[in-house]
Backbone:
């Protein structure tokens, strides 16, 4: 049996609102869908001591992240009655106010879409080998810590 | 022993001063850690996990030649 | 004290993906936001006996719905640490595959945004005086029942 | 007694054949229901609630002249 090649979830730089709109519009032909649940991560201008975050520079152990994401996807499809699931995560620089994560689930009934997207976000945060370097306004940086 | 690449991510790249180093296959994950702690004493105070071929490794796991080894601090994506 | 005029959540016809993109883009200046949660309701081509739904025609006791939505909004802002909440519901004809409900919450931390949007959707479905008339492909209709 | 508008929504518009009817103020919500059941016997088999001035009404609630009265089947928005 051929091993399925995992989808590439990574995009260089921020995720544009127009890209999100296109993703939504593409589902208009899937008339079995009753609800979409979308989560968007946006880079915050956090204050850290005397510094202000101006961007996050994301890096990843990509091959491992894609394999893991493939497992998460299969487990969520097994657990919930989903029609579609799309995930996009930025790599490289994403400035404050820009979107760095886009999780999009669709299902016949809203409960499945909502639970799956929320669970997917938690798993992405804890299980994907991705790191964020918070770049400060003036200079310097610190490595992001997920709470 | 074959030469192999060890990949570093996140804050470990600062600590090691590189994203990749080449070492001889140390044999097991425990021996790899011992070797890294000797080369980079600051790593003893750092929380990180080791993945072999994209899977989280256990302490006494054997390292086969040609494996992809990654040292990874806690994830902070999203 | 002046009574606050409730926001009008109603839009004639379907909600366009481009409108959703604009709403997202407008939040780029709010750099205290870390997460957005969006729910979209899409009209399903349900099979009912020998009929297929081709559209839903929405009507509402609008004045009451807007007052109720205002209460829901205030209660969710009191309960969750939210930065923004936007709700849009279609009136009139929305064809299958089109968007009829757009709930959009934003917060510093994802948990608040996700819980608030999901709770908001449930409350909209059960508490707002809105009715859907499911229009069939050939002819005929039936009144929608929320599960 | 003043004339007042009673609004109907959803499947009640089919049953009544109109979105609005005019009646004389029946006094209370219970009396309004009695009157509606006489005019539209099918309403006795229909689940609906009554709102006075955009608030759900209780059974013996008094209806003031000029109030907005709405008869509403179960909601089905979204």
Residues:
């Amino acid at each position: 049996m051929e091993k399925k090649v995992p989808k590439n979830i990574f995009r260089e730089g921020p995720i544009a609102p127009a890209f999100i709109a296109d993703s939504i519009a593409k589902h208009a032909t899937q008339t079995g869908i009753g609800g979409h649940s979308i989560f968007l991560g946006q880079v915050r201008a956090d204050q850290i001591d005397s510094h202000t975050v101006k961007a996050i520079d994301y890096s990843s152990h990509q091959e491992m992240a894609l394999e893991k994401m493939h497992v998460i996807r299969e487990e969520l499809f097994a657990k919930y009655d989903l029609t579609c699931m799309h995930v996009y995560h930025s790599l490289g620089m994403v400035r404050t106010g820009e979107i760095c994560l886009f999780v999009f689930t669709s299902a016949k009934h809203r409960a499945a879409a909502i639970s799956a997207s929320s669970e997917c976000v938690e798993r992405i945060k804890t299980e994907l080998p991705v790191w964020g370097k918070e770049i400060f306004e003036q200079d310097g940086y610190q490595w992001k810590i997920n709470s | 022993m074959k030469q192999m690449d060890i990949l570093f991510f996140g804050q470990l790249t600062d600590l090691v001063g590189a994203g990749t180093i080449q070492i001889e296959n140390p044999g097991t994950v425990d021996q790899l850690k011992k070797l890294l702690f000797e080369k980079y004493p600051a790593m003893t105070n750092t929380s990180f996990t080791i993945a072999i071929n994209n899977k989280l490794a256990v302490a006494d796991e054997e390292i086969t030649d040609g494996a992809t080894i990654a040292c990874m601090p806690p994830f902070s994506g999203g």
The CA atoms of residues 7 and 20 of chain D lie 5 Å apart.
